[in-house]
Design brief:
The complex is a heterodimer.
Chain A lengths: L1 H29 L1 H18 L1 H4 L31 H37 L1 H15 L3 H12 L3 H27 L3 H8 L4 H38 L10 H9 L7 H28 L8
Chain B lengths: L1 H27 L6 H4 L2 H5 L3 H10 L6 H13 L13 H36 L4 H13 L4 H15 L15 H35 L2 H8 L4 H13 L1 H24 L5 H11 L2 H29 L1 H5 L1
Helix pairs in contact in B: 1-14, 6-7, 6-9, 6-12, 7-9, 8-9, 8-12, 9-11, 9-12, 10-11, 12-13, 12-14, 13-14
Classes of the chains: A mainly alpha, B mainly alpha.
Chain lengths: ~300, ~325
């Protein structure tokens, strides 16, 4: 009798869990734009991975006799001032955008989470100092902070990733701190403490997993911001060194030939937009699907 | 309220101190000897080590870092950011020449962001699911996506080169030639404000939708109030409070964008100066500029937060 009840309860819990996941998945995938975003991001990742196979030409191969060609069957998007195939350069540029985005967000999320976790968990002076430091970082506009850091460290790609990582960090620290402050009031944290668990164990095993959903949303939403900021920096000439292909730098290269070959600027800009749009839409979808307050509304 | 303002003020001063430490140490993290920034390359070859030592002493670079920091701070408080190595004149002079231009562009963009972003967000929320909502949502999603420097270039191509309606680039003070100034400003201001318009619109929409779900709105409807009362008296007042805090962030974003837009449109403002200084490795300029922008953003955030506390007592006493 008792056993039966228990089984039934477990069954109900299980099915509730499945239902919850199914609900999240349904909301997430239910929107056309989210699906579109997922497809674009998948294509982007595949393009970045298999760039050498996909690109019709060598993106670095300069053929001066083919310079500034209009789009044709041979060169779908034309060629730049050095006779390099634009389509191939856009394909290779996807590697740059994706890599900068992933590494910068990795740095931002890791550092931000550590800072937020420490601030929220220990409170008091630790919190005061860390959060004011975050406020100070936030008072520098992101692209400016990245520009200054990149100029101080030198303009290479690695430094751009570090610079963007630092300038994107405040969001993670703030969300993490807020989450920790609310999660640590729960009874199960008190129970864990009374069982003699160490601070580190409580933080990593019990608090951190509870903070993941909003952080995952932030990572997805900021992927677009990171790619956009990298494009801005490479437009200014900071980041990947020539002849490497970066979308922002390609827009700038094309700017000089705007009258005769507007497609030189147009095409890489569209690539940036498509990718950033996709990440934003997927991020929005994730946020709405995971938001417990929206349960029952959508 | 006074306690709230004082508390917030102390907090800002604390943040400001951290900002000065960041700006000061960032420059010191530079690889290489700071004395080499003072001595030009040509002088370097004919200078003896003793001479360098003497110069180092003269500029106070041989003293403890803490002492140097307070010295620097004392100068900064008096508006002395050192000299630009490129222009050979005080940094503050160049900044004060360019600051009005960026301020003009930024405030205009912020104003436009508020005037377009907030109303469209409200319309979108109260007409949820209708065509107006769909249109606003699509445009807002595009607005937060578009690379502004690219938008600027495409606008130059279309409106200046193709249609010939607007001047390609440049900046004229409105006090010198008003109509020319307006014509030159249209494209840069659109580029600078598009992100803020879109993000304000999105945030207003979601904040309004959040408020519209509250019990007191249901009460307002159920006691038979007219739509305009429910929306303007009950929903809007509460829905707009969180938007106030976003204004500081919007301004920060606009100033950040000016780095790109002033480059695209060749506008002689602070953003353009920052880019030039970064490339010329003119660190006094970079330092002065970064510091002033951070102070400006901090100040705006302080004003915004005080307004927020004034609008929402829960913040004041929280």
């Amino acid at each position: 009798m008792i056993n039966k009840e228990v089984t039934q309860q477990t069954y109900l819990e299980e099915s509730h869990k499945v239902n919850e996941l199914w609900r999240i998945w349904r909301i997430f995938i239910g929107r056309g734009v989210v699906l579109f975003g997922i497809i674009v991001i998948t294509i982007l990742i595949l393009t970045a991975l298999f760039a050498p196979l996909l690109a019709p030409y060598d993106p670095y191969d300069q053929k001066l006799e083919d310079m500034l060609l209009s789009p044709s069957k041979e060169h779908l998007l034309g060629t730049d001032a050095l006779g390099r195939d634009i389509l191939s350069r856009i394909i290779y540029g996807s590697r740059n955008s994706l890599m900068v985005g992933i590494v910068a967000l990795g740095i931002a999320a890791t550092l931000g989470m550590i800072m937020g976790l420490a601030a929220g968990y220990f409170g008091g002076w630790v919190q005061l100092f860390i959060m004011r430091f975050i406020d100070a970082l936030m008072s520098f506009p992101m692209i400016l902070l990245a520009l200054v850091f990149a100029s101080l460290l030198g303009g290479g790609l690695r430094n751009v990733m570090i610079a963007l990582g630092i300038s994107l960090l405040p969001g993670y620290a703030r969300i993490m701190c807020g989450q920790v402050l609310s999660v640590k009031e729960n009874d199960y944290i008190l129970a864990e403490h009374s069982l003699g668990a160490s601070n580190l164990r409580v933080m990593l095993r019990h608090i951190l997993p509870n903070c993941f959903p909003p952080l995952i949303v932030l990572v997805t939403l900021q992927m677009g911001a990171a790619i956009l900021a990298e494009a801005g920096l490479s437009f200014l000439g900071i980041g990947i060194e020539p002849p490497g292909a970066a979308w922002g730098a390609m827009v700038n290269d094309g700017y000089h030939y705007l009258i005769t070959n507007p497609i030189l600027s147009f095409a890489p800009g569209m690539a940036i937009m498509l990718v950033v749009f996709s990440f934003n839409m997927v991020g929005d979808g994730l946020r709405d699907a995971l938001d417990p307050r929206l349960r029952g509304v959508i | 309220m006074t306690t709230f303002i004082i508390r917030r003020l102390i907090q800002s001063i604390f943040v400001l101190i951290i900002v000065t430490i960041i700006v000061f140490t960032a420059i010191r993290l530079l690889p290489g000897d700071p004395i080499l920034m003072i001595i030009s390359q040509s002088e370097l070859s004919e200078i003896t080590p003793e001479e360098i030592q003497r110069l180092r002493h003269q500029y106070g670079l041989d003293r403890p870092l803490m002492v140097q920091y307070f010295d620097w701070l004392l100068n900064v408080v008096q508006g002395d950011f050192g000299d630009s190595i490129v222009l050979n004149e005080p940094v503050i002079k160049e900044i004060s020449r360019r600051f009005p231009i960026t301020l003009h562009l930024s405030l205009l963009s912020l104003f436009i962001s508020i005037m377009i972003g907030i109303p469209t967000g409200i319309i979108s929320a109260i007409r949820r699911g209708k065509w107006a909502d769909t249109a606003v949502t699509i445009l807002a999603n595009l607005g937060i996506t578009i690379p502004v420097f690219w938008l600027g270039i495409m606008m130059i191509y279309f409106f200046s080169l193709y249609l010939g309606w607007l001047p390609v680039y440049g900046y004229t003070s409105p006090f010198v030639d008003f109509s020319k100034s307006i014509r030159q400003l249209i494209m840069p201001v659109i580029c600078l404000s598009i992100f803020s318009v879109a993000s304000l619109s999105r945030q207003t929409r979601s904040s309004m939708l959040e408020v519209m779900r509250q019990d007191y709105i249901r009460t307002a409807w159920s006691k038979g109030l007219a739509e305009r009362y429910v929306i303007f008296k009950h929903a809007l007042k509460n829905g707009l409070i969180p938007i106030v805090t976003l204004l500081g962030l919007s301004l920060s974003h606009i100033i950040g964008g000016s780095v790109l837009i002033e480059t695209v449109f060749n506008i002689p403002g602070l953003g353009r100066m920052a880019v030039n200084a970064v490339f010329a490795q003119d660190y006094s300029v970079v330092q002065g500029f970064t510091f002033l922008i951070a102070v400006f953003v901090l100040f705006i955030n302080l004003v915004v937060d005080i307004t927020y506390g004034w609008l929402d007592p829960r913040i004041r006493y929280g």
